[in-house]
Amino acid sequence: VPRGEVTAVAGCGLLGDRYCSGAGSYNQGKVGERQVTLLNNLFVVGSGFTAEETRRNIITEDIELMELIGREFAIGGATFIGERYCTPCEIPGELLGRGRGFKAAFLDRGGIIGIVKIGGPIRIGDKIVKGERLDKKRNERSRYASHDKRCVDES
Question: For residue 134, what is the DSSP state?
Answer without folding.
Answer: P
